[in-house]
Amino acid sequence: MAARRSDNEDNTTGAPLGLSRTPSDALKELMRHHPLQRLSSPSRELSLAVHALGLSSFAYSFWYLTAHPNHINRAYGWHFQYLTIIGLLLATLTFSFGVFADVTLSRRLFQAKNLLSMTSAPMSVLISLLYWGLRAIDPELVVPKELELPLPPDLSFHLAPAAFLVVDLLLFSPPWTITVGPAFGLSAVIAFGYWFWIEHCFRQNGFYPYPIFELVGTAGRVGLFGGSAALMAVNTSALSWVYRMVNRAGEERVGELKKQQ
């Protein structure tokens, strides 16, 4: 029969309370979540609050599409003709797994959230960069005048997903393990898969979701989607670099603990 643990012992190491833990004990505890992960997640505290707030923002965006219908609501492909809405759906799935992981403290759901994040975060950053960049040149490249959005929903669609996903990555996630080659391959599959999808929708609807697709022609679309794939891969590498810069203290702490063993 196992000995009963004393109430005066530490619940993790069995050491008497009030005594400092050894570097080995501290290292084991730190490695329960990745040493570079800044804040605790899954967690029913701050992590859950951030994921729930993000989901609320994404739900508002989907509500807006149904509460303010236009001809896209009746078109083939609905609003999923837009890369923005596909990205919004991926962000919603990512944060849904995050919320369920926080509530249940499930490591498997947490891992699923992190796996989805490797696609949803670079895509959402790509969408924000393309949308606001093209809009700065000419708003009608991305939004016809009749579909112009008020500022609050515009930010909800084209800025909030990227912001929430980047915060989740930097503060509540372990570092990504994807390298440049696979990142570009994944980005290319997404970019040209989307091209195939919008061409299919065009054959049904007779129009493209973004005016720029009509303006640049077929050769221009090849360049646009190829460039977008490259930019999304760059986003993946850039986000990984920012992650290391923001969370380098965790790596230094592990190094110090290993030296003390």
UniProtKB/TrEMBL annotation:
It is found in: Endomembrane system. It is a multi-pass membrane protein. The chain crosses the membrane at residues 46-65, 80-103, 115-135, 179-198. Signal peptide: none annotated. InterPro entries: ADTRP_AIG1. Residues 1-22 are annotated as: Disordered. Pfam families: Far-17a_AIG1. This is FAR-17a/AIG1-like protein. The lineage of its organism: Eukaryota, Fungi, Dikarya, Ascomycota, Pezizomycotina.
